[in-house]
Amino acid sequence: MKDVTPKFIVMEGLDGSGKTTQLARLEAYLGSRGRRVFVTREPTSSVTGGLLRDALSGESRRSDCEMAALFVLDRIYHNQNPICGINKMLADGYDVICDRYYYSSMAYQGSMTDFEWVRRMNIDCPEIRRPDLCIFLDLDPRVCLERISANRTTTEIYETEDTLTAVRQNYYRVFDAVEDRIAVIDTTADIDSVADAVRSAVNSIFGF
Ligand code: TYD
After folding, report:
1. Distance 72 CA to ligand 1 centre (A)
2. Over the stretch 122-144, which tens digit does the pLDDT of each residue have?
3. Of 20, 92, 108, 150, whose CB has the highest number of CB atoms within 10 Å?
4. 145-186: per-residue pLDDT in tens?
5. Element at 101 (helix H, strand E)
6. CA distance 71 to 16
7. What was the pLDDT predicted at 29?
8. Which of 156, 172, 119 is nearest to 12 (CA)?
9. Does residue 25 have its Cβ closer than 6 Å to ligand 1?
C-alpha cells in the first residue's frame, strides 16, 4: 500500500563515494513522483557547523570528543530549528533528504574515540529523530581518495586511506548497533545503476 506521509531519508558514505550526485538524482526522482523535497546536510550552516568546518579543514584543532559533541549539538539544532529544521520541514509536508547524519558520527568519531559513548549520545537523545531510511553508498576507500584528488585541490582531515578504511569498517558496526532501516548499495557500478538501486530502496518505504 502507498504511504504518503513525509519521510526522512539519510544518505551516507565515505568522502568521495558519490553522495552528492546520487542525492541530486534522488531529489529529482522524488520530485517526478510528485513529492515535495527538502535537501539538507551536516555539518549545517549553524554557528556550530562553522566550528566543525574549521576543524575539518584543519584550520583549528579539536579533540575527537570535542568533534563528537559538536556534531551532536549541530544535529540537535538541525532537528529543532523552527525555520527550516528537519521536524519543521516534515511537519510542513516535505520529504527530507539529509547528506550525512548520526551514522557519520558513529562511523567517524566512533572509530576515533569511545564508540558506545558516541552511539548513546546520538541514539538516546530525545531531540534527535530516527530516520525512516538510511542509504549507505559503499565504495573502496582507495577509489574514494582517487575521486577526491581528481575533483579537488584541498583535502579534509579524515581524507586519508587509513582513516577511511577504519571508518568504512565502522559503518558496518554501526548498522549492527542501531535498529534503523539501512540499504547498503555497492557504488562500483555506473551512476545510472546506482541511482536505480537507490530508487528501489526508497520505493520500498513509500510503497511505490
Ligand atoms: P563534507 O565536506 O561535507 O564532505 P562530504 O561531501 O564527503 O560529506 O565533510 C563532512 C566531513 O565531516 C566528512 O569527512 C565526514 C565528517 N563527519 C563526521 O566526522 N561526523 C559527523 O557526524 C558528520 C555529519 C560528518
Report:
1. 13
2. 999 999 999 999 999 999 999 99
3. 108
4. 999 999 999 999 999 999 999 999 999 999 999 999 999 999
5. none
6. 20
7. 98
8. 172
9. no
Joined together, the cell numbers standing for residue 18 give 558519490
pLDDT band at 1 (very low <50, low <70, confident <90, very high): confident
Question: Angle, nearest 10°, between helix axes 141-151 and 161-177?
Answer: 120
C-alpha cell at 73: 549539538
Residue 14 · residue 36 · CB < 8 Å: no
φ/ψ of 85, rounded to 5, equals: -70, 165
Q: Residues of the chain with pLDDT > 90: what percent? A: 96
φ, ψ dihedrals at 86, nearest 5°? -60, -45
Indicate if ligand 1 lies below 6 Å from the C-beta of 42. yes
Q: What is the pTM of this model?
A: 0.97
Q: Give the separation between CA 109 and CA 170, rounded to whole angstroms.
A: 10
Peptide bond into 43 cis (omega under 30): yes
What is the number of the ligand 1 atom nearest to the C-alpha of 41? 3
